[in-house]
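Much of our argument rests on the idea that a fold can be written as discrete symbols. Part of our work consisted of pairing the sequence of a single chain with a tokenised description of its backbone. The amino acid sequence and the backbone structure tokens for this protein are reproduced below.
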Amino acid sequence: MSSVSSAPTAIKQHRQQFPGLTNKAYFNFGGQGTMPQTALEAIYKAYDHIQQQGPFSARVNDWIRQEADLTRQAIASELNVSAETIALTENVTAGCNIAIWGIDWQPGDRILLTDCEHPGVIAIVKEVARRFRVKVTTCPIAATLNRGNPAAVIEQHLQPTTRLVIVSHLLWNTGQVLPLADIIEVCHNYSQSTRPVYVLVDAAQSAGSLPLNLTGLDPDFYAFTGHKWFCGPAGVGALYIRPEVFADLAPTFVGWRSVQLDSGGMPVNWQPDSRRYEVATTAFPQYAGLRAAIAVHRQWGTPKERYTQICSHSEYLWQQLSQLPQVNCLRATPPEAGLVSFQLNSTISHRQFVEFLEQQNFLLRTLVSPDCIRACVHYFTLPSEIDALVKVIGNL
């Protein structure tokens, strides 16, 4: 069995930057991360700056453009892509909407998604299918958690009319990391398709937790948020768009940020990059909060170093839970990321037990499909927090 040593002084000092970690053991980073104090201060400072300067003035408008550019650059640096490929959004679902609605759908086209996608994405797909007479196929990825090849399953379900494949990089329910590079290669090289097969990735759980190089992975669309593993404010997300598909993806919602203006202030053309998928006024001060949160993570280590620590903690939690007779971990092998999902062999419901845990200041969440409890560990989670959680569960 591997072990996790007591947290060194450095990580304990690092944790002091996160007020949300005080007096609680937080295991809900897959739902929303705990913001560092510097992010909260950056947001307040940005709001104050706007009020002092305008709030609607030439100086503030210039500041907004700079803030947006800096935020794209900060996000792009984490994903190893150019800033021109990043469209700033509000959340994962907004990014998925941009990608799904922007495709030129024809009757009979087909969307392929897995049986582990989030309800928000499924709702978009159902409405697109209804409006444009698009067919939807669901492939059984959940069954590959402990055995099987997800890329092979997806390949088996591709059809000549498949236009879009929707997958999650890191499954929000079971914690499985899909072989994204293999899946993208299968879709892009599918020879029977009459048109390109695009790949939209729901990156709600992967962005900020996995070390990413989207330039090497080459997804068509990668939608994510800043309020989960990045520990930024709610209301800031982004969509990576592969430059080669700009011409094929039409903006659905359009505003002054989407277009270039002439000297008279009239729109004359789309923005030449991912900015064409941005719309209009939003909570711009939140951008500073996300950048501050990313900066805090970078102070501790690189994305790869953070991921290594996340996996060390998740393996430690998984190993301890696996030894409890009243617990069934969904994974048969150590997790590949920070999500650990498990079920209780008890008459008490998962929801009741999670509510009981919250009363004891342990914050987890339940999932419906599969019916389980999910614990999320970050690189700054303490081994003592894991030990305490396992002790409470063991006493069930």
